[in-house]
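2024-03-11 09:14:02 INFO queue: dequeued item Iron-sulfur cluster insertion protein ErpA, len=105
2024-03-11 09:14:02 INFO validating residues
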Amino acid sequence: MNLPPKVTERAFDRLAEIGAEGQALRVAVEGGGCSGFQYDIKLDAVADDDLVLEDKGQRVVIDPTSLPFLAGAVIDFSEELIGARFTIDNPNVTASCGCGTSFSI
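2024-03-11 09:14:37 INFO prediction written
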């Protein structure tokens, strides 16, 4: 059985700070990049067939096509000296490219 993706409290807190009323953080897996797949993370409307992960009034959505690629993944938010970003710790990734923007499953 595939575990559903999880979203950390820190990621939900960051979404609340952004204040994107009526929108959710969409996490999708698309074909592309030098290793075959890449993430597309953006604010977007919720579609009827999305998986909705919700806490504190904030929502993260994943489309049905991306869901199997994100089984068991943890969506987080990271702040470092070089910048801040949403991150994905995905146990399904078998390799990634040198620049870290694409991966294979």
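2024-03-11 09:14:37 INFO annotate: The helical segments are 9-18.
2024-03-11 09:14:38 INFO item closed
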